[in-house]
Each structure stands twice: as C-alpha cells, then as structure tokens.
Design brief:
103 residues; mainly alpha; extended
Length: 103
C-alpha cells in the first residue's frame, strides 16, 4: 500500500484514477496507523505521509530507510552493509571537498 501511495504522489493533473487511488490509500493508511500496524511500520508510514520519498533529499531518505530496513525480518545484511559503506564513503568525499573549498 505504501508503494502505491508513493506512486500516486507522482500523478499529473487530470489523472483521475491515480487521484482516486491516492485519496483511498491515504484514508486507509491513516486508519492503519492507529489500529493495525506495529510500531516500526507505523513510524515509516507516518514519515511517508509527512514527507514523500520523491520530495525529500535522496541521501537523507536513504539514511532513514537504512535504519528502518534493518528491522525487516528478511533484510539482506550484505546489502545493508554495502549501503552503509557507500553512504560513509560519500560523506567522507563531501567532507574532503568542503575542506578543500574552505582552504
């Protein structure tokens, strides 16, 4: 449902099916937050409703998703480790660039 909500966020004016899907999913997700979702999934849904994935900063959304992904029972530890290494290396590169600029 969350993926459908994110897809419906990319709708254009006049796409009535996606507008209806967006309204329906929004209503269902807000009901599920309080009744049927566990704590971590409820937190993710609340974040998605506040800040759509495509409207956020990709690197910040990545760090948020990594913290959520490790709580999945079927998460891939190698993939998570690779994502953390990638994030840390990019952060180190940005620090070097800022250091060079400020010199």
């Amino acid at each position: 449902m969350l993926s459908l909500y994110e897809a419906a966020q990319l709708r254009c004016h006049g796409e009535y099916v996606l507008e209806e899907a967006h309204n329906f999913i929004l209503e269902q997700l807000t009901k599920f937050i309080t009744t049927q979702l566990n704590c971590s999934l409820s937190t993710r849904v609340q974040h998605c409703l506040r800040q759509s994935l495509h409207k956020g900063l990709p690197r910040l959304e990545t760090t948020y998703f990594m913290s959520f992904y490790k709580e999945y029972p079927s998460h891939d530890q190698k993939l998570l480790t690779l994502a953390k290494i990638d994030f840390n290396e990019l952060q180190e590169l940005h620090l070097k660039e800022v250091s060079n600029i400020t010199k």
